[in-house]
Amino acid sequence: MNDILRAARRRLTKSALLRKLFGRPNHAATSLGDASYAARMEAETAVYKDVADINVLPAIFHYWSNAYLRPMLEEFGVSNPDQFFAKYLLESARACNDDAPVFVSIGSGNCDTEVRVALLLRDAGLTRFVIECVDMNRHMLERGRAMAQAENVAEHIRTVEADFNRWRAPQRSAHRAATGRPARQRRRRESGHRKAAAPARGDAPPRL
Length: 208
Fold this sequence. Notes:
Layout: H1 2-13, H2 16-22, H3 35-47, H4 59-74, H5 81-95, E1 102-106, H6 112-123, E2 130-135, H7 138-150, E3 157-161, E4 175-178, H8 182-190
Helix pairs in contact: 5-6
């Protein structure tokens, strides 16, 4: 039976469809010399160049999420995504005995979520932390820096302009999370960009 299972797993691993959906990034397709990839990058940047609020959603979203999702979240002591991230990032830092944690947000966009989470973390007593906001769109990161300054959390927000297909965390113990918005995630999947929670390296337990 074990031999059959191992053989089946090898066949699934070699499946072209599964590799396309879940496999490693296609480095040939993300080559700096690939004009098509560069064009998609530019198109993605242009779409969100002037979008200050990417969270504009129809009223049914707010009704449905408050009526059905919020009660489920409240079972865990939070009422919204900002509280969710703050709660578990704080727990992660404490579990690692890290009094100066570095959190990495992949696909941070305008950094509005990260700024609000920074305020919550500071209110919870965490004072020596940094949230690295990784995004490929320099215009959105500029808005994020301005927002962090306006909310007096600039010391906790560090923007990183990078393509996630090539980005590598500079620190092994960084706590990571994906806070990108669904609409942007969908567009990035369609344009060849991956956006997902990155597993933490090193000995620290998995994050969010």
